[in-house]
């Protein structure tokens, strides 16, 4: 719905110009396309890895989204940036330094701890 509202704003702002200059239809179409570019990438990035041919941005955006989904629950800054981007309130909020630092930080490689029974520590499964 946000994309539709943004497109409605664009049409409202340009409708009077179209009435006076019908030849500017292509310009309005380009403006509408710009409004939908980021939402389209966000909506299709993870699925684009199966496209043939895959878009150039596919692997990068897919990796960034996977990393973000892994980390968004642990970082209030990343959550806020993701929320603002996803709802198109601030489309470049994920480029904020705190959000980028959280996304770019290397993943800690810690093996799952297990006790002598082989059940990972913290598991809710009953011990034998």
Given as residue ranges, the uncertain stretches (5+ residues, pLDDT < 50) are 113-128
Class per helix and strand makeup = mainly alpha
Element order, helices and strands?
Answer: HHHHH
Roughly how many Å apart are the termini?
A: 52 Å
Cα Rg: 22 Å
Shape: elongated
Largest sheet: number of strands, sense, barrel closure = none
Number of domains: 2
Helix content: 55-70%
Number of helices: 5
Beta-strand content bin? under 5%
Beta-strand segment tally:
0
Mean pLDDT rating: 77
How would you portray this structure in words?
By secondary structure, this protein is mainly alpha-helical. The protein folds into 2 domains: 37 residues; 61 residues, no CATH class. The protein is 56% helix and 0% strand. It has 5 helices and no strands. The chain is elongated, with a radius of gyration of 22 Å.
In short:
The protein has two domains: 1-37; 45-105, no CATH class. The chain is built from five helices and no strands. The chain has helices at 2-20, 25-44, 58-71, 76-86, 97-104.
Secondary-structure blueprint of this entry?
Elements: H1 2-20, H2 25-44, H3 58-71, H4 76-86, H5 97-104
Helix pairs in contact: 1-2, 4-5
Region (Disordered): 109-128
Features:
disordered C terminus, 128 residues, mainly alpha, 2 domains
């Amino acid at each position: 719905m946000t994309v539709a509202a943004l497109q409605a704003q664009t049409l409202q702002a340009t409708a009077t110009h179209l009435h006076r200059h019908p030849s500017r239809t292509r310009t309005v179409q380009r403006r509408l396309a710009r409004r939908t570019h980021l939402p389209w990438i966000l909506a299709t990035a993870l699925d684009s890895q199966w496209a043939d041919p895959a878009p150039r941005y596919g692997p990068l955006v897919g990796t960034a989204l996977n990393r973000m989904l892994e980390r968004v629950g642990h970082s209030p800054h990343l959550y806020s940036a993701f929320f603002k981007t996803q709802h198109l309130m601030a489309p470049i909020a994920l480029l904020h330094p705190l959000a980028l630092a959280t996304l770019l930080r290397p993943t800690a490689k810690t093996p799952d701890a297990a006790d002598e029974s082989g059940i990972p520590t913290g598991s809710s499964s009953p011990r034998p």
